[in-house]
């Protein structure tokens, strides 16, 4: 039996279970209601329907999920037990290649065999797949009937079907939310594990405080000392994300938030705010080539014109400026929220004293909104230092430790991309360095986010 | 409303309104109110919720300007000068006509900075010493000095509700206004704090023209000498407080006073 047909069948069984259980509950409850006792009836008939339908479907589907994972192993075992498999070569590599080929032919994904040995295994494969497929389907259907029948016998007027169904819904929601957490934990664990391997090859102090970054030389066998000093990367990241980008984003974001909340007429605000927020929806790769192809060459020409040495066509300034523009909506919308959260009465109080709008903004609104704005800026910084595409395209690869914004610098994210693109050996320090960099980035952005959210939360409470 | 039912039209009023209409969009909130307010008396505006008394109060220092949809017609003068004329600077107007709000709204700054805010923005005091004098004087007039003199640099928002409201009154006084508008200043306060504010209003009377909007008729009777009764955007009756409460001439006033509606 094919998968889709089986699922249709199960769905049909579920529907029948729902309808019949509901009808049964309705009938029994009508009788029970006639006794006149209010507690004779508990759940609406629909809940009984769901209860039985879930008992019909859930065990069968759970079983099929498990089966789908163990069946291929069983199939392979069955094939290996076949006499035709005795002539297979012993080494794992060609063995699994032949088995794979036979499986492809058996399932119809491939028309003919390159290896004559595979041709002989096709029939056993087909038979085994068929056998276990039918077994799985039959077991699933039996389970569906068993579950449905068990639940159906429990349909009584006072059976608490609603409670059960709602408990299951809650459990499903819980699993959904746990999934995200489990994923995060998994990511952190893999980061920690790979970083640990890296630090067993490279001294953590050399990594965190070393100033020379040349992983390629380490890969070419010049040793791990002095090759993994990440300070130039950290500096490049801070220089671009936390300094240049913020110099652009903070004033512009703040000013646009002030304009939008305090001065703009409602109709202007209505179209300007979404337009500004659209900036946040532009894919970062678009910003990236804008920075690399438009801004960077212009900046280099400008730098050469005013006689700055070391001007490069990939510069910290180009990446930082464009990243700043990208971050503007972020800062602006956080600032907008916190300014709007300052009570109107505060504004009225100041205006009624004869303060002008700008005095009110400078002396009352901004100070009152400051914690929220600071929180927003911290979030923006954490976003900026984790940003990858713009710096990959516009900031360059040279690990320079420089204050010259026209020079090329590199960042943590850029280097991670560099280290992990192309063919990798996962036992070299060069590749593992990417995980250590990722770990540092993760820890820093996590701390920034925690601090920012705390600041913002504390400040929200102050007005509620 | 016409002058006929406005027996207190006086020769030299501090503020006077003539046929003032206020619209919020298409909705008319005030339907032609004429009234005079003088220096020597506390004037109370009473009336049921939504009758327009707060709206009218806010036209007197143009706080309605901050509401985009609001439109004011008619004439309001301060010392004979039209406050809605283009030559009137709204900043100066509000320095002369101060306002205290329903809910205490001190700035999230120190007590000292709350009071010093107005004098600073209007350039009334520059040197620290001058400012200290203004702060002390204003807090004394607001009846708050004794309670806060040792903690002037604590946050204004840390005070109790009643103290916060007196701080707001002190803040308004600090810019030497001529008129003080109070929009239900006690509605968020407990009875003891309310009594203190009422006492303060008595003390401030004569120095400033005071207009107070209140829901509480007993309060109007206690603190004011003139009472105006608003209903559905009309000024129904305006007179000496004791007359309004004991001998109203209008049927609607009588119904409201006796608790028939409101």
From TrEMBL, chain A:
Compartment(s): Cell inner membrane; Cell membrane
Alphabetized UniProt keyword annotations: Cell inner membrane, Cell membrane, Membrane, Phosphate transport, Transmembrane, Transmembrane helix, Transport
Known role: Part of the binding-protein-dependent transport system for phosphate; probably responsible for the translocation of the substrate across the membrane.
Family: Belongs to the binding-protein-dependent transport system permease family. CysTW subfamily.
Protein name: Phosphate transport system permease protein
Classification of source organism: Bacteria, Pseudomonadati, Pseudomonadota, Alphaproteobacteria, Sphingomonadales
Main location: membrane
Gene Ontology annotations for the cellular component aspect, listed alphabetically: plasma membrane
Membrane-spanning intervals of the chain: 49-70, 132-153, 173-193, 233-260, 280-303, 315-335, 364-382, 432-456
Entry's Gene Ontology molecular function annotations: phosphate transmembrane transporter activity
TrEMBL record, chain B:
GO biological process: phosphate ion transmembrane transport
InterPro entries in UniProt: AAA+_ATPase, ABC_transporter-like_ATP-bd, ABC_transporter-like_CS, P-loop_NTPase, PstB-like
SUPFAM superfamilies assigned to the protein according to its UniProt record, in alphabetical order: P-loop containing nucleoside triphosphate hydrolases
Pfam families in alphabetical order: ABC_tran (PF00005)
One GO CC term on file: membrane
Residue ranges constituting the ABC transporter domain according to the UniProt record: 15-257
UniProtKB keywords: ATP-binding, Nucleotide-binding, Phosphate transport, Transport
GO molecular function: ATP binding; ATP hydrolysis activity; phosphate transmembrane transporter activity
PANTHER family for this protein: ABC TRANSPORTER I FAMILY MEMBER 17
Protein name stated in the entry: Phosphate ABC transporter ATP-binding protein
Species of origin: Sphingobium terrigena
């Amino acid at each position: 039996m094919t998968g889709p047909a089986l699922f249709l069948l199960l769905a049909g069984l579920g529907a029948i279970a729902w309808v019949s259980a509901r009808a049964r509950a309705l009938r029994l409850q009508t009788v029970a209601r006639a006794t006149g006792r209010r507690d004779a009836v508990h759940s609406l008939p629909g809940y009984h329907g769901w209860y039985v339908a879930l008992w019909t479907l859930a065990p069968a589907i759970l079983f099929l999920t498990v089966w789908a994972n163990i069946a291929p192993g069983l199939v392979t075992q069955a094939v290996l037990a076949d006499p035709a498999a005795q002539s297979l070569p012993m080494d794992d590599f060609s063995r699994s290649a032949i088995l794979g080929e036979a499986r492809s032919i058996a399932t119809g994904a491939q028309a003919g065999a390159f290896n004559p040995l595979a041709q002989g295994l096709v029939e056993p494969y087909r038979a085994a797949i068929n056998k276990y497929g039918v077994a799985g389907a039959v077991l699933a259907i039996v389970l569906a009937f068993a579950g449905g029948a068990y639940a159906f016998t429990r349909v009584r007027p006072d059976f608490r079907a609603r409670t059960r169904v709602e408990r299951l819904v809650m459990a499903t929601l819980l699993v959904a939310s746990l999934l995200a957490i489990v994923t995060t934990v998994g990511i952190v664990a893999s980061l920690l594990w790979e970083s640990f391997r890296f630090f067993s090859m490279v001294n953590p102090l050399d990594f965190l405080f070393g100033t020379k970054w040349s992983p390629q030389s380490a890969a070419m066998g010049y040793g791990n000392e002095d090759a993994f000093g990440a300070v130039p990367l950290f500096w490049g990241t801070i220089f671009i994300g936390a300094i240049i980008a913020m110099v652009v984003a903070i004033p512009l974001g703040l000013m646009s938030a002030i304009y939008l909340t305090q001065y703009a007429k409602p109709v202007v605000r209505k179209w300007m705010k979404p337009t500004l927020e659209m900036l946040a929806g532009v894919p970062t790769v678009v910003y990236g080539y804008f920075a690399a192809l438009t801004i960077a060459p212009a900046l280099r020409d400008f730098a050469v014109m005013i006689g700055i040495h070391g001007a490069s066509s990939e510069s910290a300034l180009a990446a930082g400026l464009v990243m700043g523009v990208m971050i503007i909506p972020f800062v602006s919308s956080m600032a907008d929220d916190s300014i709007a959260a300052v009570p109107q009465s505060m504004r009225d109080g100041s205006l009624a004293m004869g303060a002008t709008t700008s005095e009110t903004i400078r002396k009352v609104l901004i100070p009152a909104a400051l914690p929220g704005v600071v929180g927003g800026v911290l979030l923006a910084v954490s976003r900026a230092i984790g940003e990858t595409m713009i710096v990959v395209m516009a900031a360059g690869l040279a690990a320079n430790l420089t204050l010259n914004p026209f020079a090329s610098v590199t960042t943590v994210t850029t280097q991670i991309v560099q280290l992990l693109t192309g063919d990798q050996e996962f036992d070299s320090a060069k590749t593992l360095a990417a995980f250590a960099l990722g770990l540092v980035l993760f820890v820093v952005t996590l701390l920034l986010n925690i601090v920012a959210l705390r600041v913002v939360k504390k400040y929200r409470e102050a007005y509620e | 409303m016409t002058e006929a039912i406005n027996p207190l039209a006086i020769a030299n009023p501090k503020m006077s309104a003539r046929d003032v209409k206020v619209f919020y969009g298409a909705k008319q909130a005030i339907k032609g109110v004429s009234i005079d307010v003088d220096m020597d008396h506390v004037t109370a505006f009473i009336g049921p919720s939504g009758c327009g008394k707060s709206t009218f109060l806010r036209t007197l220092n143009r706080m309605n300007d901050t509401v985009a949809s609001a439109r004011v017609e008619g004439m309001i003068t301060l010392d004979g000068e039209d406050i809605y004329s283009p030559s009137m600077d709204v900043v100066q107007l509000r320095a002369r006509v101060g306002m205290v709000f329903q809910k205490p709204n001190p700035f999230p700054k120190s007590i000292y900075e709350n009071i010093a805010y107005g004098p600073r923005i209007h350039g009334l005091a520059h040197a620290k010493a001058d400012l200290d004098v203004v702060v002390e004087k204003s807090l004394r007039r607001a009846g708050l000095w004794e309670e806060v003199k040792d903690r002037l640099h604590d946050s204004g928002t840390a005070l109790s509700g009643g103290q916060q409201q007196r701080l707001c009154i002190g803040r308004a006084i600090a810019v030497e206004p001529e008129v003080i508008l109070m929009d239900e200043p006690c509605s968020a306060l407990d009875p003891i704090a309310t009594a203190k504010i009422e006492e303060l209003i008595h003390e401030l009377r004569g120095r400033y023209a005071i207009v107070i909007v209140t829901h509480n008729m007993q309060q109007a009777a206690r603190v004011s000498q003139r009472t105006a009764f608003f209903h559905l955007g009309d000024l129904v009756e305006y007179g000496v407080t004791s007359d309004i409460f004991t001998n109203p001439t209008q049927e609607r006033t009588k119904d409201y006073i006796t608790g028939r509606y409101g």
